[in-house]
């Protein structure tokens, strides 16, 4: 896939999820995030015991795959690996930071929203 062009992929694109147990379970029940024939996961359940390196590796792994179009990540987890999230500059996969049951959404910490505001000249 080229850097600035979205190429149609036979079979479509997938959504990956990085989140707490409740978030990932909800998306799995809705049909998002699966295990393919190669036993590759499209989801990562993060807990207090999950090493940050494992989350970083999962995020980087998802961003390097050409079959994933969207990565949903709990915002509080994205905050833990903010340096990795902010370093990702490609348009695909799109990174969407979502709230969790225990951690409400904070627009001021959303990297995508901040990029849009900066592009529009709005620094509020």
From TrEMBL:
Assigned keywords, A-Z: Hydrogen ion transport, Ion transport, Transport
Recorded GO CC terms: proton-transporting V-type ATPase, V1 domain
Secretion signal span: none
Single GO MF annotation: proton-transporting ATPase activity, rotational mechanism
Protein family according to the UniProt entry: Belongs to the V-ATPase F subunit family.
Known role: Subunit of the V1 complex of vacuolar(H+)-ATPase (V-ATPase), a multisubunit enzyme composed of a peripheral complex (V1) that hydrolyzes ATP and a membrane integral complex (V0) that translocates protons. V-ATPase is responsible for acidifying and maintaining the pH of intracellular compartments.
The protein's assembly and partners: V-ATPase is a heteromultimeric enzyme made up of two complexes: the ATP-hydrolytic V1 complex and the proton translocation V0 complex.
Name used for this protein in its record: V-type proton ATPase subunit F
């Amino acid at each position: 896939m080229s850097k600035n062009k979205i190429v149609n992929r036979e079979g479509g694109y997938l959504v990956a999820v990085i989140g707490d147990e409740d978030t990932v379970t909800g998306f799995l029940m809705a049909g998002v995030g699966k295990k393919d024939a190669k036993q590759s996961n499209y989801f990562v359940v993060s807990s207090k015991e999950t090493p940050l390196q494992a989350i970083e590796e999962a995020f980087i792994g998802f961003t390097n795959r050409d079959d994933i179009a969207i990565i949903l990540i709990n915002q509080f987890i994205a905050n833990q690996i903010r340096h990795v999230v902010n370093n990702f500059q490609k348009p695909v996969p799109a990174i969407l930071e979502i709230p969790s049951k225990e951690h409400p959404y904070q627009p001021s910490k959303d990297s995508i929203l901040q990029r849009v505001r900066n592009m529009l000249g709005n620094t509020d």
